[in-house]
Amino acid sequence: MSKYKLASLKEDGKRTTFKVENIEIGKDFLMIAGPCSVESEEQIMEGARLAKEAGANMLRGGAFKPRTSPYDFQGLGRVGLKYLRKAGDEYDLPIITEVLDVRDIYLVSEYADVLQVGARNMQNFTLLTELGKIDKPILLKRGMNATIDEWINCAEYILKGGNNKVVLCERGIRTYETFTRNTLDLSAVVAAKELTHLPVVVDPSHATGRREMIKPMSLAAVMAGCDGLEIEEHPNPCEALSDAKQQLTGEELKDLIKAVNETLKFRESLK
Amino acid sequence: MSKYKLASLKEDGKRTTFKVENIEIGKDFLMIAGPCSVESEEQIMEGARLAKEAGANMLRGGAFKPRTSPYDFQGLGRVGLKYLRKAGDEYDLPIITEVLDVRDIYLVSEYADVLQVGARNMQNFTLLTELGKIDKPILLKRGMNATIDEWINCAEYILKGGNNKVVLCERGIRTYETFTRNTLDLSAVVAAKELTHLPVVVDPSHATGRREMIKPMSLAAVMAGCDGLEIEEHPNPCEALSDAKQQLTGEELKDLIKAVNETLKFRESLK
Amino acid sequence: MSKYKLASLKEDGKRTTFKVENIEIGKDFLMIAGPCSVESEEQIMEGARLAKEAGANMLRGGAFKPRTSPYDFQGLGRVGLKYLRKAGDEYDLPIITEVLDVRDIYLVSEYADVLQVGARNMQNFTLLTELGKIDKPILLKRGMNATIDEWINCAEYILKGGNNKVVLCERGIRTYETFTRNTLDLSAVVAAKELTHLPVVVDPSHATGRREMIKPMSLAAVMAGCDGLEIEEHPNPCEALSDAKQQLTGEELKDLIKAVNETLKFRESLK
Amino acid sequence: MSKYKLASLKEDGKRTTFKVENIEIGKDFLMIAGPCSVESEEQIMEGARLAKEAGANMLRGGAFKPRTSPYDFQGLGRVGLKYLRKAGDEYDLPIITEVLDVRDIYLVSEYADVLQVGARNMQNFTLLTELGKIDKPILLKRGMNATIDEWINCAEYILKGGNNKVVLCERGIRTYETFTRNTLDLSAVVAAKELTHLPVVVDPSHATGRREMIKPMSLAAVMAGCDGLEIEEHPNPCEALSDAKQQLTGEELKDLIKAVNETLKFRESLK
To answer: What are phi and psi of B183, to 5 degrees?
Structure first.
């Protein structure tokens, strides 16, 4: 009777939660931080140290990067995965990284705790189908021009395969507005939580593309009801090989997470 | 040097505030509530009573309604203004209403404390120019497809005429997404406060068009830094002559305003 | 039974035509050309001469200009209307110009043969209502973010007042694409002709904002079934006070109209 | 110096052409027709017969279908490829079909003459990279929300691998308009031919989603300068398993191709 056979929120209102190390996603707030790309062992180590110190509970870093131009930096690949794993282990942070290619699923799974499907691949149905067969959580970004309905149907592709550890991630949609990189659609968080039982995370870094907007949009996202945030942070944003304008410094991240935690406590008190 | 001669935030960081009755807009949080349209004396009286009781500090109600079809209800006109004024006086609430026609500015000014320019009229430059010459505050809604830059330029039209009491209002932009009526762009609140010294208000009713989203989006808007909210409320939403699906009951409004006030206190504590 | 009481194409398939001077709009192809703005008597005289020579049958020129910023050139106003009239008379071309302000309708009507409603004013319902009461043809541009349904409803506002001389004009819609100024939606021409009995004109100048696209898009528009074109042409495009990049020279216009006329003949032969 | 290292049109103005059987793509007009999906041997045989009879020179048919929901018909897979090949051989038509999965490239290449990359996979960079290594022409559809620049960069991914047989295909972009399935952007045809040396094809079936618009939009596309068309045609559109509303009958296709051929002749005469 439900609109989405497996993804729909059922009448009992029960929401999906699942463990990644000691975080119970869907219950504990997921605070992902780290650089856009893994650039070197030193950079990701330092990025991880800053993320940990700031209070993040998961480390991100791209090893395979989807880039508009084939001449842009495409990521370090397997070597990047190794560095990311090492940094996660060193600072006791589970790691999340993007899988671009259906043939890399097992490679990426060897290293990562959570696999990310990027916005450009949201409707890569063969990738989704294969990810339905593995036993790792999947963070599914909303496509730049995807309707909420299409996004949830993509989660359904993964669920249908038997993998029920799916996290949805709103990351901004493409509109005519050019002041921001994309337009963050926080009503999609409310919609996704109303329509499905899946945890919903927000990525204000890609959504806004502007450093000064990340904090207010993060706090707004918390009040919209999100279950986590994914924030880009870099030891030295100006030198970042990708997305330099939207990555926070360690100090900025610490300040952000502190405010997020207070807002979470406030949100809890409001119920 | 500023991008917008008059609207730009200057180096001193000074923000515009101004009084409407005993509310200091830009400093006190503006909590506008009331029905989409003034439908009858009883309806607006009851709407005002509920708004007051719920804790609103300004009453809205449309007397001149911009409607897609010429055969839809176009508002009660002058009679609607009278009822709205009477209701505002009865419950000691200043009133805000839309002015559609440059020829109605003086008529509307006689009754209303604040004049609203609707999204469809945002770039009605002759209207803006005339509103620059009067001594009443203007709430300028962002057009459905207006860039932030165009919106601020429209404020500039009013300011240029000598009227510096301008409030900006984000009300959702038109995108491909159809689950919500429009897409609420909260990053525009951050942008407008960063680029200008004007107060910025958010209308989650028109932005979402869905009753259940109004509360979470209102709290998110507060955390994004807005200076006020405009909420549609109706004594009997199901019977509303326009926008029935997005109007709150008195009870819902009371619950909303309570949460908004707590969130404001929390926001204050965060600084 | 029709969707639009007055605008809908009826079962008899009869289409609206009406005379402006010796052009039967809806039957004869309407070839409007002229500068974006009337800038001086010399400029519009020369613009008219070139338009006539190139084969246009109506002269355009803005006297009241809707501009994003209040500090941009706003048009010459009444003086511009006089120059435009003089140029039209000199070269025996009926004239079309935009009316921005409901209070200017009678002034503009004194001079112009056809009144244009610009994209930003498409839903200026008071303007539409007043234009319904006059006996001059109205060219109604589609709003930058207007659905086809909203656009036809705006025509309905004019028709409802008793003025049945309405021409629809597609001029590009706002999308995320930035290579072109707007995105020309030629399927809207087919839709408008299928849904209504009104003539439909296309403005490729504003739609593309790129000189080199105007000819191919004009020929494409003819094959999509349009009843006319509106083209910006300037004696000296580089010195134009507005829209310099999209105005054709006299030579380019002549080349364009020649190709349009051949395409029209071909279209006729195809039936 | 060129914006796109390999895709850019060089100063010599030389355009890419290449042979598929006896069609020289980029020089001969490419007229692709056939059903959305291969549904059965009989259906594709009959579809091919009608396509041939109508004057098409290439046969399309989906064997692997990207569908919004995992519960929708996903195509016949390898069996579909066999039927398609058989139908192409029977009626002496080269065949084009979509490849969804990087692991299927060699399978699809065994059967198909041209491989199609769908809109949802436009930025599936691993797929593009692998397609750069094979010796079959690739038809690259523009993503539903892709800028012209992103689209050309995706072609660059294929070219960079050494495969220079790339055809671009405009198939409509996603906008707020809901009357049509997408908004056909014919100015993108002009842009793509101005910026690159690659052939550009138009798919009015997916762009409009409305049977009655396919003919006028096809003729418009020809006048915009396209090098080919891709049209959905089905022996019995009403019973089609996908996209029923936009598939032409054999008769409609014949009528369309006749008009396209006359328009091509006219276009030639215009130069």
So the answer is: -110, 115
Q: Residue A108 belongs to a domain with what CATH number? A: 3.20.20.70
Q: D67 lies in a domain?
A: yes
| Interatomic CA distance for residues D266 and D270, integer angstroms | 6
Query: Token digits for B263?
Result: 């969130």
Count of the separate structural domains present in chain B: 1
Q: Chain A neighbours among D 151-170 (CB < 8 Å)? A: 153, 156-157, 160
For residue D170 the two structure tokens come to: 């405009």
In this complex, the chains that touch B, judged by 3 or more CB pairs closer than 8 A, are A, C, D
Q: Are B68 and C153 in contact (CB under 8 A)?
A: yes
What is the residue type of C217? Answer: M
Query: Cα–Cα distances in Å, from C97 out to C84, D63, D247?
Result: 9, 55, 43
What is the helix (H) or strand (E) element at residue C191, kind and residue range?
helix C187-195
Q: Cβ distance B208 to A187 under 8 Å?
A: yes
Residues of D in contact with C223 (CB under 8 A): 216, 219-220, 222-223, 263
C-alpha span between D255 and A185 (Å, rounded)? 45
Query: Does the predicted TM-score (pTM) go above 0.90?
Result: yes
Does residue C102 fall inside a structural domain? yes
Contact C216 D190 (CB under 8 A): yes
Backbone angles phi, psi at A186, to 5 degrees: -70, -20
Beta bridge partner(s), residue B232: B34
Identify the domain containing residue D108 by its residue range. 28-269
Residue pLDDT, tens place only, D30-67: 999 999 999 999 999 999 999 999 999 999 999 999 99
Sequence-distant (6+) residues with CB within 8 A of B202 are B169, B170, B171, B184, B186, B189, B217, B218, B221, B224, B226, B228, B229, B230
Q: Is residue A5 part of a domain?
A: no
Best mutation target among C67, C126, C173 (most B Cβ atoms within 10 Å) is: C126
Angle at B73 between CA B70 and CA B78, to 5 degrees: 105
Min Cα distance A259 → chain B (Å) is: 7
How far apart, in whole angstroms, are the C-alpha atoms of residue D157 and residue D132? 7
CB B217, CB B207: distance < 8 Å: yes
Give the residues across from D8 on adjacent strands.
D196
Encoding tokens for residue B100? 């559609």
Looking at the DSSP bridge assignments, the partners of residue D23 are: D20
CB within 8 Å of B138: residues ≥ 6 apart: B114, B115, B116, B117, B131, B158, B163, B165, B166, B167
Residues D189 and D156 sit within 8 Å (Cβ to Cβ):
no
In whole numbers, what is the pLDDT of chain D averaged over residues?
A: 96
User: Model ipTM?
Assistant: 0.96
Contact predicate A47/A61, CB 8 Å: yes
Q: pLDDT digit string (tens) for C2-52? A: 789 999 999 999 999 999 999 999 999 999 999 999 999 999 999 999 999
Cβ of residue A179 closer than 8 Å to a chain C Cβ: no
Band of residue C96 on the pLDDT scale cut at 50, 70, 90 = very high
Integer Cα distance of D99 and D121 in angstroms: 9
Best probe of the B interface among C6, C64, C65, C68, by most B CBs < 10 A, is: C68
Q: What is the DSSP letter of D65?
A: -
Which residues make beta-bridge pairs with D170? Answer: D202
Instruction: Give the integer Cα–Cα distance in Å for D94 and D115.
Output: 11
Q: What angle do CA A186, A189, A191 make, to 5 degrees?
A: 110
Tell me whether residue C110 is exposed, middle or buried, using C-beta atoms within 10 angstroms of its C-beta: 0 to 12, 13 to 18, 19 or more. exposed
DSSP SS3 for D118: coil
Please provide residue C31's backbone torsions phi and psi, each rounded to the nearest 5 degrees: -120, 90
Q: What is the pLDDT of residue A242?
A: 79
A70 and D102 within 8 Å at the Cβ level: the answer is: no
Residue B145 near chain C (CB below 8 Å): yes
Residue B162 lies in a domain: yes
